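Late entry, evening session. Most of the bench is empty. Finally got around to the prediction I had been postponing all week. Sequence below, unchanged from the version circulated by S.P.
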Amino acid sequence: MGKLHRTLLIVRLNFLDWKRNPKIIAGFVLAFIFCVMLSGRALIFARTYGTTMQIFEPFIWAFGKADSILLSSLLLLFFFGDMPFINQATPYYLIRMARREWIGAQIIYVGIVTIIYLLFLLGIFCLLCAPLSFPGNMWSETGAMLGYSGVGSDIALPASVKTMEMSDPYTCVIKIFLLMLLYETLTVTWMMIWNLGKNRLGGILSVFLLNLYGLLLTPQIIGKLLHIPETVQYKSNVLCGWLSPLNHVTYYMHNFGYDYLPRIWQSCLILFVLSGVNLCVIHWLAGRYEFQFS
């Protein structure tokens, strides 16, 4: 209980830095703008055709494209950009606790903040789309029109037919939360490795490069690099699904029983293992970290 108490104390101290913190305020403001931008197209489409939406569908569509996931992930840098939080008091904390407890506190903080952030996005999407939405656990006529007609891809509302046929909105939201939680753990631990190397700029750039790698790894690029003919283009899609971190977070880019894409549990396992490797490196770096007092 003593170890857990000390770990949660560090988590609490991290949250105390939120008070009147301009970066935290900017993060939530930009997240609100993100919701307004992405929900606007859905509202216009629904009003134009006189249809309704399932209340979670705009949130699901927002996480249906790699570029939207990239943007939402980068907004979390406002919350995590300085991690692990090291100040003049940190050495005194580490006198009273093991470094693995201190690292564990940072990871718990990442998980709690990611859930708060996703709940904020989900709540804003629900509030903005509430007048044209219903809460039932079934896909809407708007989603069916966007998916089956192909219009969704043209207006950046990726309503996947595969998602609607193989899942329901409530389950889909829960799995998006899980995938985003694991992905943010991966990106933040990757950034913490660079930050512990006393290279804050390198930490931020490493996150940009990791996300850029996932964004640029498209079937078209894979097909050209490996000279895959267009007649077997599905091989490029499968390779992108396995090799791109962003595709591991994109819900419809998974195997629901009839292709070779990774299954949800396989993506979770890959993200979890990669995060575990990062944590081992962080633990080693934390043991060698030299504090400087001013």
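Two things to note before I forget:
The chain is about 70% helix and 0% strand.
The longest strand covers residues 53-54.
Will write this up properly tomorrow.
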